[in-house]
Design a protein that fits this description.
The protein is α+β, with helices and mostly antiparallel strands. Helix content is about 60%, strand content about 10%. The chain has 2 domains: about 5-190; about 280-409, Histidine kinase-like ATPase, C-terminal domain (Heat Shock Protein 90, 2-Layer Sandwich). The protein starts with a helix and ends with a strand. InterPro entries: HATPase_C_sf, Sensor_HK_TwoCompSys, Sig_transdc_His_kin_sub3_dim/P.
Length: about 400
């Protein structure tokens, strides 16, 4: 490689090769603005070697044969022009400069840039191999054209250090770029995972709200069915009772329509992230639920045996309310006219128990259609709350729904 003492006396050379000299990926067909800037800078650095060595050969004290001078300058010019294609073929370009470096001083700058480009764009083994070949090419060059001021081995070691520093710098730039890309990929992956977690959380919340509204909607529809059935089977009822039943039907239908709109809104593909959440029921809302069912004509007795040393957790109270609501809805649909017993008991440390019991209807359950998933969803709700749910026909001829929910002390 044609790096002579004059080149070694330029300690600022490595500092002039910024990390951007490697440009974008090797072989990129289209250069960005940054790539153009780097390529122009590399061209100017290599051209400065051609001008500097050419001027020294023309005006130097030691005469240089014209043919050798022309060949040297021509080789430097061609090597400098070839830098425009170093991105596409970095290894091939660096190897093509090996024979040029055996005699051409003017190609020294282009050779260093080529070695640096290989170190940036190729793995360490290839970069070290190319750097070693350029080191070996310096030995016959210095033997043919020795430096008149410094010993052979001194110049050789200096040139080797320059090439080694160039390779090490390129490998450092490559490692830094890989680290930045890795950190960027990790950041993008973490952002994508976070977005996925947010979407999953939104979906879970939408499903939970939809279940809540399903329970409420089923409760409203069962009230409508009960009152409409009463009007159908008692056409001779007093006008005030008919008006009262019609008012309840109208109110229940209005509420059912409102609940249905909310369910559809929740199940939209693009729900508003800041949409207000409907108020959730608690254990204190059980009396109102029972009164609403009584107004629909059900016979219900509520036994509140809860110890009120402290308020139960919100999720526990809401689950107890939903258990009672679903059990009353099933009693209205499948055992109309039967008396229902609702018992709520327990306290902090013992847990909260909810039991809804009604006699098994004569002739079996009514034929009112149902999805059959109410108790399944109820069992899942109770299980997610950390509790247990049991339901079925008892030996004494009743249908019983029993739930236990944890209530920490």
């Amino acid at each position: 490689m044609g790096v002579t003492t004059a080149a070694v006396r330029r300690p600022e050379l490595p500092g002039l090769l910024p990390a951007s000299l490697a440009g974008s990926s090797a072989g990129a067909a289209r250069r960005s603005g940054r790539d153009w800037f780097v390529d122009v800078l590399c061209f100017l650095i290599a051209a400065s070697f051609v001008v500097n060595y050419g001027f020294e050969m023309i005006s130097g004290a030691d005469p240089v044969p014209d043919a050798m001078m022309v060949a040297d300058i021509a080789a430097g010019v061609l090597a400098t022009i070839g830098l425009w294609w170093r991105r596409r073929w970095p290894v091939a370009f660096a190897l093509a400069l090996l024979p040029v470096g055996l005699y051409a001083d003017t190609a020294s700058g282009a050779s260093l840039i080529a070695v640096f480009t290989v170190a940036v764009h190729r793995r360490a083994a290839i970069a070290l191999g190319v750097g070693a070949l350029h080191m070996l090419s310096c030995m016959p060059y210095l033997a043919i054209r020795p430096d008149p001021q410094l010993p052979y081995w001194t110049v050789l070691v200096i040139v080797w250090l320059v090439i080694a520093a160039t390779v090490a710098w390129g490998m450092f730039v490559r490692a830094r770029r890989q680290l930045i890309l890795s950190l960027r990929d990790r950041a993008e992956q973490a952002e994508a995972e976070q977005e996925l977690r947010v979407q999953q959380a939104r979906q879970v919340e939408r499903t939970r709200i939809a279940r809540e509204m399903h329970d409420v909607l089923a409760h409203r529809i069962s009230l409508l069915s009960l009152h409409a059935g009463a009007l159908e089977f008692r056409p001779d009822a007093p006008s005030d009772e008919v008006a009262k039943a019609a008012g309840v039907i109208r109110s229940s239908a209005h509420q059912a329509l409102h609940d249905l709109r909310e369910v559809i809104g929740v199940l939209r593909d693009d729900p508003a992230a800041d949409a207000p959440v409907p108020p959730q029921p608690t254990l204190d809302d059980l009396p109102a639920l029972v009164d609403e069912s009584r107004q629909a004509g059900m016979r219900i007795r509520l036994h509140d045996e809860v110890r009120r040393e402290a308020e139960p957790p919100t999720s526990v109270g809401r689950s107890a309310y939903r258990v009672t609501q679903e059990a009353l809805t099933n009693a209205r649909k499948h055992a109309p006219g039967t008396a229902v017993e609702v018992t709520v008991g327990g306290g902090p440390g013992d847990g909260l128990t909810v039991e809804v019991r009604n006699p098994w209807p004569v002739g079996g359950p009514s034929g009112i259609p149902g999805a059959g998933t109410g108790l399944v969803g109820l069992a899942e709700r109770v299980q997610l709350a950390g509790g247990r749910l049991a339901h079925g026909r008892t030996p004494d001829g009743s249908f019983r729904v029993h739930a236990w929910l944890p209530w920490p002390a």
